[in-house]
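Worked Example 4.2. Consider the chain below.
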Amino acid sequence: MRKYPSSAKGFYFLFMCMLAQTVMAELVIKPSVGYGSPAEDIQVGPLYTGQVGFSHDTLLGDNRLLSLFSSADTAWWQSLHEYQATVQGGAELSLGIGRWIYLVGMQGVFQEDRTTNTAPTGSITARLVGIHNSTDYSLQLEGEASVVFGQTYDTVYTGTVSASFLQGELVIKPSVLISASFSHYTPVSWSVGPKIGFSWYPPFPINLGIFCLYQHDIMDTDASWQIAVDLAVQPLSWLGFNLSHGAEWTEMNYNGTAKGELRFSLASSPWYTSGYFIGTDLEYVVEPFDLTQWKITTGISFQIF
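Applying the procedure from the previous section yields the following structure tokens:
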């Protein structure tokens, strides 16, 4: 899907406003098959996954952009005859005034995991962003408010301050996030953490993101640290890969997730591209070490413009 990181949204908006056409649309279809286990102590077996996504951008005059997007991800585990699914969609309106870009958006997410027999979860999020652009840097202020169901809290408020600095071929993207969760207007937890991202554009692009978050649970007086690292590399026009790892430390345990995907480009034209991919995804706990979920998938992706 053609959804961009927040720090890059301002540059994308300016690029769109320079285009002669007033509408851009994109459809992504990504079927795959694989093998793995959806949870601990469950027999391994085949799985079938699919992703469908759509985005549509329309210029509303010289300095306004309307973006619509939606996607659905599903996985069917044959060993359990059950599924996992995530559906999301939203809209975003961008307005450019001088060097500032203002964004107002709304997004909904729904998730259901029948492999664990847990209740469905979901959220509706309203988002307000202000981005200031210059030749060598951009500054972004962002606020979000979410209504949540299926969790121990029902509302979440998040504020983020981020920036992007251009140093030759290197883009540096620091940010700070503050978040608070509430249940029936009572504080449940709060979080604060820095994030740093790097994008390098030598003969081929390299993107590296590092995120650290401290979360304090007010009700149980528990605390946890979370860290995530993401790496995406495109060494050749027909070859790319990405790796990511996330971990959480508490007083009782340490758990983590790791993902990787290797992509090969196939046929392409001005109105579509296609590719072949191999991916892996696992979740684990430590003390003692055990895999709680893992899968290996392979498939073909289609991107239609």
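Residues 181 and 187 are 6 Å apart (CA to CA). The longest helix spans residues 6-17. Compare this with Example 4.1 before moving on.
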